[in-house]
Amino acid sequence: MLKAILMDLDDTLYDASAAYRRGEEAAIRFGSDVLELSRQEWEEAWLRGKARTKEILKVSAAQHHRLFYIQHALEYLGRSPFEHAEEIYEAYWNAALDGMCLFDGAEEFLRAVKAKELKLGLCTDMTAATQYRKIRRLGIAKYFDAIVTSEEAGVEKPDRKMFELTLAKLEAAHNEAVMIGDNLRKDVEGAKKIGIRAIWKAGSKEVYDGEAFTCYTDGVLQSYCGL
């Protein structure tokens, strides 16, 4: 019997990829201006800073922290790591959050889950502060009973600890839950590996041989969850 639904956040409930593109464009445009660099110089430093962050922090939640991207970019340039760093960081997130909205039909799905009195938990990579900002912007806190970020868990999906910590907060067993996410390896295969049913938000990607839905308005997810 289904008791709880676990959901990823980024690119599952809203278009994170588009938000990050907006943020990066704003950070590059604003950063090159305040640092008095050409766009090409700052963009190259930004990309190197991002790569350095991923290299050092690997699978920790901190690998996603844009302030580290900026810090390492400034260090690459031989500049002070504090030079306009917070301003560039805020320029990134102001642009990323601006226009951020749920996918069509996503809020109706969340309402249907709550109407069915199922428990709902967010199981999401990235740092808590960043995810809380997104949740506030999207206005979805009222639908969720629990949240686990990879910062809290100390690991990222597909590590089983992410799923099991979320289940514990929802007081649900593995066979009483469903995981919904856009990342086939992290969300779907990670959940299935430990006995949690999962359905892939495939979007426009080619559907694999398993449970998947393209959008919240096609009725597939609702049917899968018995709503």
Q: Could you describe the 3D structure shown?
A:
Helix 6 (128-138) links the parallel strand 2 and strand 3. The chain has helices at residues 16-34, 39-57, 66-76, 85-97, 106-115, 128-138, 150-153, 160-170, 184-193, 220-224; strands at residues 4-7, 119-124, 146-149, 177-181, 197-201, 212-213. The chain contains 10 helices and 6 strands. Helices cover 50% and strands 11% of the residues. The two termini are 13 Å apart. With 227 residues, the chain is α/β, with parallel strands linked by helices. The model has no long low-confidence stretch (mean pLDDT 96). The protein folds into 2 domains: 4-15 and 101-224, 3-Layer(aba) Sandwich (Rossmann fold); 17-97. The protein has a 6-stranded parallel sheet, sandwiched between helices. It is elongated and about 60 Å long.
Major sheet summary line: 6 strands, parallel
Low-confidence stretches: none
Distance between the termini: 13 Å
The proportion of residues forming helix, as a percent range, comes to 40-55%
Total number of helices: 10
Radius of gyration: 19 Å
Look at the structure and name the CATH superfamily of the largest domain: HAD superfamily/HAD-like
Q: What is the topology, as strand order, of the major beta sheet?
A: 3-2-1-4-5-6
- Which class do the helix and strand fractions yield? alpha/beta
Kindly give the count of domains: 2
The shape, in one word, is elongated
CATH topology of the largest domain: Rossmann fold
Q: Average pLDDT across residues?
A: 96
E-strand count: 6
Determine the strand fraction and express it as a percent band. Answer: 5-15%
